[in-house]
Amino acid sequence: MRREEARMGQEPLRLVQFTRSFHIGGTEVQVLELLRGLPSSYRLQVSVLEDAGPLMESVRKLGHAPEVFSLKGSLAKPNTALQILRLAHWLRKHRVHLVHVHDFYSSIIAVPAAKLAGAKVIVGRLDLSHWQGRARRLLHAQMTRLADHVVANAEAIRTMVVQEEGLPADRVSVIHNGLDLQRFDARVAEGLKAPLPDPGDVPTVVHVANMNHPVKRQEDLLLALAMLRHEGVRLNAWLVGDGPRRPALQKMAQELGVADGVHFLLHRSDVPALYGRATFGVLCSSAEGMSNAVMEGMAAGLPMVVTRVGGNPDLIVDGERGLVVEPERPAQLAQAFRRLLSQPEEARKMGKAARRFVARELSLEKMVGQHDALYRRVAQRPQG
Asked: Which residues does the UniProt record annotate as the domain Glycosyl transferase family (predicted)?
């Protein structure tokens, strides 16, 4: 393997992108964009834990047939060790130079396998580990420390990995997510794929998030709407996403007396077009990574109201590209909504500034280019 590393300047860099699956999510979309955008000088391969997800068709159209290393349930089962050995053998067979692993479960397989195979490994840390229990956080931190390099997609995540998990700062890079504005604008132009409730002349706020995890805090949005309603201010809300928490949220909207203006749209494939019909957007989570939902709202030219958590402050500067409030403070949300509604010209300026920021700082070309440079730097580094 060391001879191979010495020759990498004369041969393609053999890179594996390893992720859990290709369901629709921020991580999976970014992996797909890397597969599309990296130069043809790479020898790219894809590995997954599950051969599943609607994005898998796009992966296959790019010419990739993902190799599957299934966990088959609990990490504590003997199968986990078997998959690590299988992957190590596969990496050696294909003379892989570098593995980029994008999520917790995949890192448990990929990091030790890469070490056994003599390949370099980069671990992606893309959230604040808010959904993990103590044991999983410790395990993830250990896998991260074993990696040759770490990619965070927000400054808050880099800070956590360095300060709380003890990684040297020079082994952690921040690369923000990228967005293909041309493709986004084309999706806006395609229009709606399904009808929307007619808001009439009432302004509309849109919230895009799953309804699986309490950290998304749709409850705070509902409370803010109720506060405005009490003052006589009408504001419709489109909640895009679904999950087991939806019935409780629907019941809460009824109890607060705002159900007539709160529309649960479930999963939508036309979010860009939907953003184009809203007045502003909101993401009021108590924990976040780098939110694609916020990025897409900005790309649509909407002022976004976000909480001061995770990657949100990387995207929104309060009063410039939107408004920033503290998490779990529905009264602050209501105040921010009131400001945007009462100052439409200021809101439009914020939306335009948000769009310019996406074009300048969050382009797909910039994201891919930064990964390209990092891959080559890490691959050429001598084994420690």
From this structure: 196-356
